[in-house]
From TrEMBL:
The keyword Lyase applies. It is an enzyme of class 4 (lyase). It catalyses: (2S)-2-[5-amino-1-(5-phospho-beta-D-ribosyl)imidazole-4-carboxamido]succinate = 5-amino-1-(5-phospho-beta-D-ribosyl)imidazole-4-carboxamide + fumarate; N(6)-(1,2-dicarboxyethyl)-AMP = fumarate + AMP. It comes from Gottschalkia purinilytica. This is Adenylosuccinate lyase. The gene is purB.
Length: 476
């Protein structure tokens, strides 16, 4: 039976690793970890909770009775209470102390924070693998001259590797954003219904220090050094906005990279991987469409658009909390992570097999280089006694004539022949050919590639050397 909508992010695009992280097992398993941490903390601080009760909770931590939870949720219309009761069915001794003093946001919000942090760690690992692929590509082609483009019109030469370094620099900025955001994520902790910790103050008979200790104990048990110092019922929804902004930034970078690859593939200079049995078009059998890059662009726009959701949610919350954030966040946060995971994986796949057609690139360079070299040719002719102003006017006229040959008649650029036949220039063919060497027009592009990668990228790759080497095979 296939009569129900399936999310293509799960069935087609994202990794099992990311899909598993946002699964029900992961979510509700983390709820149970939080309930165990709370009970342990409360016991350590003197509440009447037994080791037997905690052991019982641990025994069923990973054995979630979804059937009971679903039945209870239909009855209660409240997912947290449904899972408390389902857990209690398995743990009758612990039932009286599960969720003691807590509000729903204790498990919901803390779990969301924990999962987002783990998801950022997954993306971090894949992002540095992509940076590794791209830096190798940049180094390999750092010296290969290619046409630069401004306004998608031929401009001064750059190199294939230097262009890739521009892409890599954007990824470098994304990496820095991710690291900053990840390192500043805190747990919501144990804050109570409106963030005042009133219920816990009652539990500990007005002992403020024990309430503060409980917040720290639970945070430490869940792997966090810090909790947000103050909250309402929820953690600051600005965190969602900050996190999804990181994902949006990655999406912006990958969309730009794949835009360039699609344009270069049209020029037949670069081509994304195309497998032996892959079909480009159902009708035009010869086609080799850049479907990987197009898929990245498509999902990237979803991620960029999704970034608006947490921004609107953060800005429209009422006082200590409203529930109009809930349904939106359930969809937006996991799906944006799944999509971001997918585009980085596809990008790794693309750069594992990106093909560079050097002869086509050289032909394009040679077609345009005579125009670009006119200033250098004038300077060489002036060295041999020519008049700069006079030569400038002559070469302007000859360039116009050569341009007509190319545009109106579809012929090759014959500017060099016209210059050789003009006695005012007094330059031999060999002298002009020396001027026309493409490597003379790329400036410091090769050096910039090496310097940037050595100074900025290699330290990152060295830090993550144990996780590099990731290869990705597409699901479809």
């Amino acid at each position: 039976m296939n009569d129900t909508y399936e999310n293509p992010l799960i069935t087609r695009y994202s990794s099992k690793e990311m899909a598993r992280l946002f699964s029900s097992d992961s979510k509700f398993g983390t709820w149970r970890e939080l309930w165990i941490a709370l009970a342990e903390g409360e016991k350590e601080l003197g509440l009447n909770i037994t080791e037997e009760q905690i052991d019982e909770m641990k025994l069923y931590k990973d054995n979630i009775n979804y059937d009971i939870a679903s039945q209870k949720e239909r009855e209660f219309r409240h997912d947290v209470m449904a899972h408390i009761h389902a857990y209690g069915v398995q743990c009758p001794k612990a039932m009286p102390i599960i969720h003691l003093g807590a509000t729903s946001a204790y498990v919901q919000d803390n779990t969301d924070i924990i999962l987002m942090k783990k998801a950022l760690e997954i993306l971090e690992k894949k992002l540095v693998n992509f940076m590794d692929k791209m830096s190798r590509f940049a180094i390999k082609y750092k010296d290969l001259p290619t046409l630069g483009f401004t306004h998608f019109q031929p401009a001064q030469l750059t190199t294939v590797g230097k262009r890739a370094t521009l892409w890599l620099h954007d990824l470098y900025m994304d990496y820095e954003n991710l690291e900053y955001t990840k390192s500043n994520i805190k747990l919501r902790g144990v804050k109570g219904t409106t963030g005042t910790q009133a219920s816990f103050l009652n539990l500990f008979d007005g002992d403020h220090e024990k309430v503060k200790q409980l917040d720290k104990i639970v945070s430490k048990k869940m792997g966090f050094d810090k909790t947000y110092p103050v909250t309402g019922q929820t953690y600051p929804r600005k965190l969602d906005s900050d996190v999804l902004h990181v994902l949006s930034s990655i999406a912006q970078t990958l969309h730009k990279i794949t835009n360039d690859i699609r344009l270069l593939q049209h020029l037949k200079e670069i081509e994304e991987p195309f497998e032996k049995n892959q079909i480009g078009s159902s009708a035009m059998a010869y086609k080799r469409n850049p479907m990987r890059s197009e898929r990245i662009a498509s999902l990237a726009r979803l991620i960029i658009a999704n970034n608006l959701n947490p921004a609107m949610t953060a800005s429209t919350q009422w006082f200590e909390r409203t529930l109009d954030d809930s349904a939106n966040r359930r969809i937006t946060i996991p799906q944006t992570f799944l999509a971001c995971d997918a585009i980085i994986e596809i990008a790794i796949n693309v750069f594992s097999g990106l093909v560079v057609y050097e002869n086509v690139i050289r032909e394009h360079v040679n077609n345009e280089l005579p125009f670009m070299a006119t200033e250098n040719i004038i300077m060489e002719a002036v060295k041999k006694g020519g008049d700069r102003q006079e030569l400038h006017e002559i070469i302007r006229q000859l360039s116009m004539e050569a341009g007509k040959e190319v545009k109106e008649k579809g012929k090759r650029n014959d500017l060099i022949d016209r210059l050789l036949n003009n006695s005012n220039f007094n330059l031999s063919k060999e002298e002009i050919q020396n001027v026309l060497k493409p490597e003379n027009f790329v400036g410091r592009a090769p050096e910039q590639v090496v310097e940037f990668i050595e100074e900025c990228i290699n330290p990152i790759l060295s830090k993550y050397k144990d996780v590099l080497g990731l290869e990705i095979e597409l699901n479809v």
